[in-house]
Design brief:
Elements lengths: L1 E3 L2 H13 L9 H11 L9 E2 L9 H8 L7 E5 L5 H12 L6 E5 L8 H6 L5 E2 L2 H16 L16 E2 L3 H10 L7 E4 L2 H7 L7 E6 L12 E5 L2 H17 L4 E6 L3 E12 L3 E8 L10 E5 L4 H8 L5 H7 L3 H20 L4 E10 L5 E3 L2 E6 L16
Parallel strand pairs: 1-2, 1-3, 3-4, 4-5
Antiparallel strand pairs: 6-16, 7-10, 8-9, 8-10, 11-12, 11-14, 12-13, 14-15, 14-16
Helix pairs in contact: 1-6, 2-3, 3-4, 10-12
Length: 390
Amino acid sequence: VVLSHSGGLGAIAADSLGAAGFRLPPLSEGAVTLMDELLGSTGGRGNPADITMALRDPVVTDVVTKLLEEPVDLIQVITAGDEALPARLGDAVKAAGEGAPPLHLVWSSGIRTAHDPAVIEGSPVPWFTGATIAARILAGCRDAVVTAPPELPPARVAVEGPTHVPDEVQAKQLLGELGLSIPSAVVATTADELLSRSAELPRPWVLKVAAEGILHKAADGLLILGLDDERQLSSALERLAPRLDDLPDSQFLLERQHEVLGEFYLGCSLDPHFGPVVGFGRGGSDVEQVAAVTWATCPLDAAGARRLLHSPAVAGALDRLALDEPVLERLTSTIVDVSHWFATAQAQEIEINPLAIVREEPGVVALDAVLRFPGGSKTAAPIDQSTQGA
């Protein structure tokens, strides 16, 4: 119901509410009868209701109290300015008691006197400074209430105790099953086997030692980059072979070394307040900077993933790369897929660093990954001894 002291103001309010999807039903017979008794022939009894100058009279309290009995969702009182009106509306709300529809005031005249700011700010009922603003905000509140929130998986938190960190081969197998691109690779337990199969991969190569519990292969001296031929590979194998003997259940991992254009971080963890969260930011050593990663709750849809890509942490770096839309779509789908998997997986954490933008197809490749599971949990069985990935 709209109540005003001017037919013009009432029409403005009605038009604004109508454009926002609200319907203005006619007043009940009881409301019309009471207004006739209180106001005589003054004003109009439609909706909007126009009580002319009586809106600035104490009788407005009785009128509004009666309107608060109407079977409507809200009452809007619009005025061109009256210092006494907010208090009278407050008295009407108190008289109506609980269960009455919400009432608000639209103060359409702006600030005309030195007293107006104090009157508006001291109003005992909610107020707006314009009919259009009021209608838009009310519509937003209405739509937020009637739109069912998406169903989210039950929140979970990290389990205290030991964790299991699969080796890189197992971690990348899981990423491949999720649809992520991983480097083409050969896995072997001996140097001779790896040398005999190295021709299966395009050059240059990167040689790694994969073992459970290893978090930083470069820092641990378990990675050698830029191998261009079998001679260099043989020398690298000689250097890493003793490490293979030191680490139980370890194996050689030879991968194609891509031409990297940009490095990014994609990770998920369990926040104690929000449950599963996904973060995207600058990769490599930049990820150590807290501001380099932006986080959101899992799972994300494509729109949510794009918001991460446009976050201040990475927007500049991505803009400088001037990525084609297919690469951006691949990056977006990678974030979506990982966030959906982590939302329901038993993992405690996943870190893909770097998630690289590469010159070769498919444009986005997970070059390294670390996963943590609660103690005793295992990933799927290691990948078979065949060429893997891109």
